[in-house]
Structures are given as structure tokens and as C-alpha cells.
Amino acid sequence: MITSGCVERVHLRVVEMPLGAARGGSGATQLQLVVVTLTDADGASGTGFSYALGPGMVAAAALLEELHLPAVRGLDLADWDRARYRLRDGTHRLGVGIPLLATSAVDIAVWDLRAVRAGLPLFRLLGAQRDDVPVYGSGRATHAMSTAELVSGALSYRDEGYPAVKLRVGVHPPAKDIERVAAVRTALGDEVGIMVDANERLDLATALWLAPRLVELGVTWFEEPIPSRYVAAHRALAAGPTPPLAVGEHLLGLAEFAPFAGVAPIWMPDAPLAGGISEFRRIDALAEAHGASITPHFLPELHVHLGASARTATWLEHFPLLDDLLAETLTVTAGRAMPPERPGHGIRWDIDLLAAHTVRTVEG
């Protein structure tokens, strides 16, 4: 059900947030957001966003101001799908990156507003496939941690009921990384899953060395072992002994996932980067057609709705990227999370903190 209604006002803010200690495997210490708010004639509003781990969102904000926001001001929500393709065609010569980030933010805001107007949680408007989603712990493992700290973080997730945890490799020598993963496996036993993420840091030779050793340790998947642009290298890795390969957080749009069909069975789209909720649904359909599964990247407060509505979804990732800007974070109970039963995506921003870190606004 897509409710109609016209967008009357648009608002854009650019947010810069220091992260303090480096987060996850990327080592990011700064978060930039563009946050788009669409308000209709009845006063209902929806928010969407895109982000960068570091600089870059000022460029997305400039494109939003020039092209995307004028395109949605006065737009009937029922016509967004057609407008989205027009925006894509109109920015074709700019490539995929910045235009898709801008479209993602608007698309998420449109879907949020559609769900608010319908009086439904987003996952129910999209078509709920499940009421809750299993969650793995990903936010308590960095390369800077000692092995003892890595084990402690994994055990804390286990003690809170998480059925699996993610570790990072690719900064330490390969043999050291295997020692660290093995230490966590010994501490957790065989009942808790371990995922391993290389954050595209490896070359093919190193990945080929690591992969069979990760198989011996019972690793659930081997994520982003090499840069995603090297599809042939992924194919070579997949042909040997390896945990299932996972790719997707750096893939923007449906077309970039297509070459991995039959190569990587686990796809990890990030809706605020990959084209928003509309494109996420297309990626889910492609995954279903090829027997792949989806586990969204980061952002559990948004992705819990997509994990509950996507046909191929399996896991949700617990990673505290936005926590410092939220008034309410997602509750995980016994390793599972339920989408909030309030209209829209239900993300509750801390308005004061958001304002404090806003460096630019556009109103219209």
C-alpha cells in the first residue's frame, strides 16, 4: 500500500560527528551525515540519511540542494518511483557514487513518510516476512585490541545472548590474525558463530592462505577479503577451500551486486549508500533469484526493518555507528531484535546533539 500525499517542505542538514576512538575495521574517527526531512501538507514528516566514514558528504549535500530537493518539493509520494529513475538518468554521466548517496537519503525519507502516513511501521508497509531478526555482535573488535581484549569483547557478546560475533583481520601479519581468531574460538567454544571481516585489506595470495585456516576454525563467513572491484579474484578464492564469501558494503546499486551471483553467497547492502530502501528491495529480489542471502551492513535502527521484510535476510549487524546521535537505540534481547511498532522507520534522533554537530542547513 503506497499512500499519496504531496511533499510541501524539504530540509537538509550536514552533520559532522567525531567518533573518538577508531571504530571497527575501517579505523574511522569521523562520521559525516546528510539528513533529509520531507514534510507534507498535513504536517507529517519522514527522515532519510546517507553518510561517510570521513569527509565527502558536502558533495552529496551540494547535489541534493541543486537537483534532488527541487525534484521532490511538491512531489506526490505515489510518484517517487518514477522520479527516482528520472534522477538516476539525469545524473548518469556523474557516475554512481555521490548521486546514489543523495538518492539514498531522499528515498529513505520518502519511505519513512509513506509509512507514517499509512500509520504503519516501515517493515509492515514493506511486507513483513518475520517479526524479529537474529543479531550478531560486531562493535567490540578492532585491530588495536590485544588478543585478551578481543576475547573479552567476544565473551561479553556471548554473555548478553548474541549467537555470533564478528572479528577483523588484515592489519596484523596473517599468522597473528589466525592466532587471534583461534583464541576467540577457544574462549567461545563451538556454539557461538564467528564471522571474519578483512575490510578489503588483503591481496588474493594472502586471502588464499587465510581461507582454509578459517575453515578449520569453523568461521561462518569470510567478509570482504579483497577489494570488491576484483571480481575475478573473488571467483578464484571461492573455487578453493574457504568459508562462504560475503560482499556488499562497498557495492553501490543493483548492478554492482550482479557479478557476485554464484561467487559470494552472502550480500551486505547498506541502504543509505546503495540506493535507499527502493534499491535494497531490488537487491533482495536479485539475491533470491540467485540463491544468495542478505545481511545488511551497519545501522541496525534502520536495517532492522529491512531484515524483517527482505525475503533473503538472515542476520542483523550490531554496530554502534549512530548511537551518539540517537535518543533511543535498538533493543537486542537474547540475540534478536524486533522493529519498533511505531509508524515509519521509528529512528529517534537526539535533536539537540544533531543540532550541535550540524555544520550546514538548507530549507525550502
TrEMBL record:
What InterPro entries does this protein's entry cite? Enolase-like_C_sf (IPR036849), Enolase-like_N (IPR029017), Enolase_C-like (IPR029065), Mandelate_racemase_C (IPR013342), Mandelate_racemase_N_dom (IPR013341), RHMD-like (IPR046945)
Q: Which residues form the signal peptide?
A: none
Kindly name one Pfam family recorded for this protein.
MR_MLE_C
- Cofactor(s) recorded in Swiss-Prot or TrEMBL: Mg(2+)
What are the record keywords, sorted?
A: Magnesium, Metal-binding
Query: Residues in domain Mandelate racemase/muconate lactonizing enzyme C-terminal?
Result: 147-244
Q: Which SUPFAM superfamilies match?
A: Enolase C-terminal domain-like (SSF51604), Enolase N-terminal domain-like (SSF54826)
**What name is this protein filed under?**
Mandelate racemase/muconate lactonizing enzyme family protein
